[in-house]
């Protein structure tokens, strides 16, 4: 697996990684559902491995420009049979239990809104 640094990887690299391989089948399906839906909205992001069992989605364009920037868009925690999704917005600690069978549009919309807000702010600063 080619990683940009020790912890940052593309979605394709995530799906080939030991992180993904170590997940149970229901969590794998939930993660694929979440990432597929976000990708279909034309979101470009990296996956950052954090302390087990957590990954963070980072806006690719912002990270590529400045890896130390605040480009986090969501935190994903792996639970027993679900994933917990936390859209990354200052002062908001909303957590969604997510599995493939309860994929709620609100989760996708919130993450996309955060992504769009951060990308637009980044582009306007240039």
Verbal overview:
The chain is built from five helices and six strands. It has a six-stranded antiparallel sheet. The model has no long low-confidence stretch (mean pLDDT 88). The chain is globular. By secondary structure, it is an alpha+beta fold. The protein has one domain (8-125).
Entry keywords:
126 residues, alpha+beta, six-stranded antiparallel sheet, 5 helices, 41% helix, 22% strand
Instruction: Please describe the biggest sheet, giving its number of strands, its sense, and whether it closes into a barrel.
Output: 6 strands, antiparallel
Spans of at least 5 consecutive residues with low confidence: none
Summed up, the helix count is 5
Note the overall shape.
globular
Tell me the Rg in angstroms: 14 Å
Which strands sit side by side, in order, in the main sheet?
1-2-3-4-5-6
Q: What string, H for helix and E for strand, traces the elements in order?
A: EHHHEEHEEEH
Domains, number = 1
The strand count comes to: 6
N→C terminal distance: 33 Å
Structural class: alpha+beta
Task: Chart the SSEs and their pairings.
Layout: E1 8-9, H1 11-15, H2 18-21, H3 25-40, E2 45-49, E3 54-59, H4 60-65, E4 72-78, E5 83-87, E6 96-98, H5 105-125
Antiparallel strand pairs: 1-2, 2-3, 3-4, 4-5, 5-6
């Amino acid at each position: 697996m080619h990683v940009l640094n020790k912890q940052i990887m593309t979605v394709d690299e995530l799906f080939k990684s030991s992180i993904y391989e170590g997940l149970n089948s229901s969590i794998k399906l939930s993660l694929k559902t979440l990432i597929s839906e976000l990708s279909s909205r034309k979101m470009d992001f990296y996956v950052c491995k954090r302390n087990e069992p957590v990954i963070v989605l980072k806006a690719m364009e912002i990270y590529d420009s400045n890896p130390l920037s605040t480009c986090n868009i969501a935190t994903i925690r792996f639970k027993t049979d679900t994933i917990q999704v936390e859209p990354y917005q200052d002062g908001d600690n909303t957590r969604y239990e997510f599995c493939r069978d309860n994929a709620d549009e609100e989760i996708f919309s919130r993450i996309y809104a955060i992504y769009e807000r951060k990308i637009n702010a980044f582009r306007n600063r240039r």
